[in-house]
Amino acid sequence: LIVLGQHVTLDAGTGCVHTAPGHGREDHEVGLEYGLDVYSPVDDSGCFTEDVGFFKGQFVFDANKDINAKLKENGALIKSESVKHQYPHCWRCKKPVIFRATPQWFISMDKTGLRKRSLEEIDRVKWIPHWGRERIYGMIENRPDWCVSRQRAWGVPITIFYCEKCDSLLINQKIIDHIFELFKKHGADIWVEKEAKDLMPQGIACEKCGGSEFRKETDILDVWFDSGVSHAAVLEQRDYLTWPADLYLEGTDQHRGWFHSSLLTAVGTRGAAPYKAVLTHGFVVDEEGKKMSKSLGNVVAPKEVIDKYGAEILRLWVSASDYRDDIRISDNILKQLSDAYRRVRNTCRFLLGNLSDFDPAKDAVPYSTMPEIDRFALHNLALLIEKGLKAYDTYEFHVIYHSLYNFCTVDLSSFYLDILKDRLYTSSQKSLQRRSAQTVMYAILDAVVRLMAPILPFTAEEIWSFIPNREAKEESVHLVSLPVVKAEWKNAELSKRWEYLLNVRGEVSKALEEARTRKLIGHSLDSSVIISGDAETHKKLSGFKDDMRSVFIVSKISFVQENEAEADNGSKYKSSEVEGLSILVVPAPGEKCERCWVHDPSVGTIADHPTICSRCNEAIGN
Prior knowledge:
single chain, alpha/beta, Isoleucyl-tRNA Synthetase, Domain 1, hypothetical protein PF0899 fold, four-stranded mixed sheet, three-stranded parallel sheet, elongated
């Protein structure tokens, strides 16, 4: 008989192979397709059964010589030679193995519609990342019936009985309920400890022949069935939990494992998926993306990381990593994260240090009276909060970390806080300008510490304990909710105007650096900046006259029409980033104020305070 099978190829050999439906998965499937007998004359010990007759009791590999001899004796051996080829071996003992088709317990995927209902439930679950849906959908769609029995000595027993007289299967609700009560009282070990007659209810007889003697099933359940019903064991046995679970969380291999078996057991018994969302993560690898191995010496032990960098850095590494791919770790990566952590921490220290005399209940400035730059800072804070809350909702913790880090280093340290220093240190203590800055700083610190609490719990708790005159009275930051955005903070038009000014600021910084290179100035406060541009540029910058000096951190700023600007022998910086913008940097007029460091002509003209400027004189007078 010649049959066809897709598993046979022309890559090696003749393209013709011997087929044994009882000894190989592909052979078995082809045999079922063609209606062949599933012939398997090998017992549990690997020896031939009496079906083979002459070779009964011989171990299959030991019988090869006798088989050849018998073929020769019968004149059926045409040729005999040894051929080297690939053959399956045991992964543990490295000895050759054979496959046997044996009676097993299966859960049908199609007879009761389990496959169809499972596929429908997959589309009701939120899969994170989204490709998890395609992966498990394809597995369920194409999988065979689920073989749930295993031939092992230890495990969860399959509680089935067989009649000793007629070998019929015996199981009904009365027996199931009785076994359940025995297991509940004595544990599953009673199945092994007791005989069949001691495990069955009184008066049970074989439904087919009336026999009264039975034997137990010796197979156990597939361990994936064990884990697959954990949703029932955990969620339904505790009053404080609800079914289904909000989230299942495991590695990418569990689409074939726990996620898979949990879905089938839940749909089969409960009619729905056991989870609302499933999150999948990659595995930890070294800096080069290689799997960790003791032999390679690239294993990074968590305890060593904690001892060297602290638990907070280990948590930060987890939250900073995009878990959708394999996650890299090395000492170099941890050092970089440690540096990033210090920047975030130092930003919070700066905020705390400038809030020591601030009480939000008494000193807070209304949004409507704040300078534009403070309102711009609150707009950016609102964007951070919205991005952070969305990231928490979608479990994108790396987005939270990177957003917090960029906000602290770029929006705050490199821009807003750098500009605020002049106001904080030179304005009078209770002035509107200083209190406005403190109001915004308080809002920023309160929001940032709440956002970082889930990923940097110790740091957030420490910062929380030092916030002066805290509005929230909870002792722990972990007892308060995540921050909320005040509607008035968001101002897209204001943001657009200030983003333009930030672009100009970047160009001014380049011009200042050129002047510093030419030894024309030292610190930026040693300079006076003259900006020239076309009418459109003048229009855009005219609304910032009161802000530009502090934003650019220079002593003097002036704006002239393009044709009015001094040539300065070609030293003018012409921007390639901002159209119609030219910048001229010259030494600032006047002496340097020893209090604010700004060069001003008024320094030396005040009799009582000849070393400070008129602005500082007014501040200390107040």
